[in-house]
Amino acid sequence: MREFELDSFPAAIDFVRRLADLAERENHHPDIDIRYRRVVVRWSTHSAGGVTDRDRELAARTAELL
Amino acid sequence: MREFELDSFPAAIDFVRRLADLAERENHHPDIDIRYRRVVVRWSTHSAGGVTDRDRELAARTAELL
After folding, report:
1. pTM of the model
2. Of the candidates B13, B16, B29, which has its C-beta nearest A36's C-beta?
3. Per-run averaged pLDDT (10 residues), chain A, 66 residues
């Protein structure tokens, strides 16, 4: 789980759009909680019962979307 | 709190974009949880300690965004 704080609500929504594009390309979809200009992102793999190497890689790539 | 189930993840993200536009116009921002193609929306007013008539109105308008 990682929380990202953006400068504004529209900036947070733009970040979610970029994240959603990544998720759709990868066909792997994180849980996303939007709290005004903070966005909580959780990558996990239900079928594996937790966090895999791929989840960790996608978490790192999420941070690059800022 | 209300949960909306869309047809796909991209459709859920488009719904969140429309919801975000409404929120920004109203300068009132709900909590939004994205769970693949399900979106949980909670309108509340922290300064009022709960749900106001305005929150209920915006919740009704959220359903019209589907």
Report:
1. 0.96
2. B29
3. 97 98 98 98 94 97 96
For A7, which DSSP code?
S
Please tell me which residue of chain B has the smallest CA distance to A20.
B13
DSSP string, B1-23: -EEEE-SSHHHHHHHHHHHHHHH
Reported ipTM: 0.96
Closest CA to A28 of A58, A62, A64: A58
The C-alpha atoms of residue A27 and residue A12 are separated, in whole angstroms, by 22
Question: Quick check: A10 and B20 CB within 8 A?
Answer: yes
On whether the CB atoms of residues A2 and A62 are closer than 8 A, the answer is yes
Q: Choose among B29, B34, B36: nearest Cβ to A9.
A: B29
Strand partners, A40: A3, A33
- Which candidate in B8, B18, B34, B38 is best for mutational testing of the A interface (most A CBs within 10 A)? B34
Q: Do A24 and B10 touch (CB under 8 A)?
A: yes
Is the distance from CB of B30 to CB of B43 less than 8 angstroms?
yes
Place of tokens 């939007």: A34
